[in-house]
């Protein structure tokens, strides 16, 4: 299996857009302030925006699509002639396969958890006399971690796809060359046998 430029372009594009969305989610995290209820003696939280949740879920979906494409093209490391031989390329493909999945799962966990936490809004918190009230917000760095792991997932997926393609193609070329060698080696023997029969 040769490396497809179109597959690489799709994988890189999806991961880069997911990375940009994760950075946008980090910068647009919901902020809140405690305000007084004008009808009673309670206080409540007012949140400004939920754009971070939308960005995070969009990045989650794009990263999932990218991973599905990579594993669909490589058949999730289950098939391939070159991967059975135990070559160096096959070993690298297995290591990169594990690395891409670990970084992918880490990125998806950060993006999904960050989106869910950012969507959570605290309502009534207490009474006026209490000054230790705080509104629940997503802490800084969750989406940033998801963005960093998205880049690692991009690197792992591209290198895994390249190593898998190299291992698969290399195994096919090896078997093909062995077949050609056996045919050329048997040709002189047939010619000698014909000469002995004439003699």
TrEMBL record:
Protein name listed in UniProt: Fiber protein Fb34
The keyword Protease is annotated on this UniProt entry: no
Entry membrane topology: Multi-pass membrane protein
Primary location recorded for the protein, binned into one broad class: membrane
Protein family: Belongs to the DESIGUAL family.
PANTHER family per the UniProt record, alphabetical: OS07G0462200 PROTEIN-RELATED
Signal sequence region: 1-22
């Amino acid at each position: 299996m040769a490396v497809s430029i179109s597959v690489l372009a799709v994988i890189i594009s999806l991961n880069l857009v997911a990375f940009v969305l994760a950075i946008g989610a980090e910068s647009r995290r919901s902020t809140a302030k405690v305000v007084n209820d004008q009808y009673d003696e309670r206080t409540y939280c007012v949140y400004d925006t939920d754009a971070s949740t939308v960005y995070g879920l969009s990045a989650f979906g794009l990263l999932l699509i990218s991973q599905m494409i990579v594993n669909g093209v490589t058949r999730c490391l289950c098939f391939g002639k070159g991967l059975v031989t135990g070559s160096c390329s096959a070993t690298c493909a297995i290591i990169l396969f594990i690395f891409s999945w670990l970084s992918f799962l880490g990125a998806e966990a950060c993006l999904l958890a960050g989106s869910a936490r950012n969507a959570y809004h605290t309502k009534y918190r207490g009474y006026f006399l209490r000054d230790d009230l705080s509104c629940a917000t997503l802490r800084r760095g969750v989406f940033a971690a998801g963005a960093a792991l998205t880049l690692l997932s991009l690197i792992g997926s591209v290198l895994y796809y390249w190593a898998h393609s190299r291992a698969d193609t290399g195994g096919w070329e090896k078997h093909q060359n062995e077949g050609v060698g056996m045919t050329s080696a048997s040709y002189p023997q047939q010619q000698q046998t014909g000469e002995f029969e004439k003699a």
